Amino acid sequence: MAFLGAASVSVVISALIIVSLLGEAISFLGQIELDQLTEIGWFPRRGLYDISTLIVGSLLVTALAMLVATPLGLLAAIYLSEYARPRVRRVLKPALEILAGIPSVVIGFFALAFISPEIVKSVFGDASLFNLAAAGLGVGVLIIPLVASISEDAMRAVPSSLREASYGLGARKVTTSVRVVIPAAVSGIVAALIVAVSRAIGETMVVAIAAGASGGSLFTLDIAGGGQTLTAAMASLATGTDQVKGASAAFQSLFFIGLVLFTITLILNIVADRFVRRVRQRY
Amino acid sequence: MAAPVAIAVERRLKSGRADVKGVAFHALLLLSLLITLGILFTLVYEVVQTGFGVLTDRGSDFLTSTLSANPANAGVWQGLKGSFFIALFVIVFAFPVGIGAAIYLEEYASDTRVTRFININIRNLAGVPSVVYGLLGLAIFVKYLGGLTGGRSVMAGGLTLAVLVLPIVIITAAEALRAVPSGLREAGFGVGATRWEVVRSHVLPYAAPGILTGTVLSLARALGEAAPLILVGAISRGFFATSGGGLIDELQGKFTAMPMIVYGWASNPDVDFREGLASAAIIVLLAVILTANGAAILLRNRYERQR
Lengths: 283, 307
Known about the structure:
The complex is a heterodimer of chains A (283) and B (307).
Chain A: H1 2-31, E1 42-43, E2 48-49, H2 51-83, H3 86-101, H4 104-123, H5 132-156, H6 160-168, H7 173-184, H8 186-202, H9 205-210, H10 230-238, H11 249-282
Antiparallel strand pairs in A: 1-2
Chain B: H1 4-14, H2 20-58, H3 60-64, H4 77-108, H5 113-126, H6 130-144, H7 146-149, H8 154-178, H9 182-190, H10 195-224, H11 227-232, H12 247-252, H13 258-266, H14 271-306
Helix pairs in contact in B: 2-14, 4-8, 4-10, 4-13, 5-8, 6-8, 8-10, 9-10, 10-14, 13-14
């Protein structure tokens, strides 16, 4: 029975997350005029709560991150699953796992100290030090191992009889990988990409460090300039530089953003879960 | 002398057009993996190059000094202490509850609608962004239970991170339990052992290395998290006095942690903090986390070889 109690703790945690987010978010919406949610830009201390500024910022960062992580992660997965000899795999796989274990705050430092001046500056000459592009590339680095490991699992789950059948028909390795293994593992690969998107949207520290705009941000589509995402706005509302204490609307907007973020990631995770289970059922 | 026919056949088989596409694809795959590892290498190089000097100049002084507005005196002692307490909270709260939950789900629960709901719920919890756990910590541990935790304290931070890693502990422990061959259980039941006896003396020892690997990895995850601590109100820069009282005062007092110090310094306008000191703090943080991760990987490799 003690074990049942332990298992139900997870349900209690979920309930607490939903109750605390909903409670404070509703109280926030009660305190402001609804058209404040579509004012120009996100400046909580001035009563401007344009949530679309943050959502678009998050989408820009996520799109850039996926642009980096999808090819690198997928190709690395194909290599590890189809090409690498066991001995090579035993060296490369832990190396990827080390990258996966590096805290996001360290990747954030890397984005600001290296990606922004060395890479973003060489593409956009007039880029500011803090910019959404560096944040997006940093988040991309962060999710490469995630894409690689989930899609590698999916490819390794493809029965070897399919590969042997393909070789038996005279197909070469590249044809077998691209035309047989990848289509057979597609559910798992899609799941990997959805999980990666969800992780990128929820990533906080890289964006909080590298994207700048700690006080607030105007609506922007310029990735060479600073900007704010759902997560970075929460971090800056909570830190000393922009401390908004007590039960003010600005403070409670924190929970409103949290609710939006929670809803988006929850939907993505449920969809990804469906895809993963489809792989399991088939093989 | 090989028969000319055999030679002709061999030539015929081996020649044909060279597999250009195959070689190019292989090269592309290898290249993408090398780029990824190159990023990892660049990151480590960048950090070591800017931070190692600070560590060698300051020596152990860097580890034993407190936060300060003066880059020449600032150190990470308070961060090490905060991270130590956070690790304690994770070990004391998340590990037993997580492993207990996994034992229930894998060994005791039958496949009912409730069990399936709990399982789905745990998987979804594992995907909730860490910053949302920070909001939970702010609402529950800082505000609602503020009398007990002392508000923005290391106790609130540690409990928040224990909640954050709980689903990961449950999932990895459940996987380790699932890998135990069912013959082991059946043999136990066959000689009349109760379910608990089978779990305690057969299943758990067999699954222990796997469970241990999972718990160590989740501890490493907790040690690297900064986002939830920002929301719970950890200090990221500037001096703060540590309460001089006993353990309880310490647990209820203001706090920081290694990743928070990295965040505070990396986003500091002062270039001394932003480069040298931030890198030096990262080296300390990575040393702690990579030791834990490396231990977990070694454990797993040994365990896989035994099979």
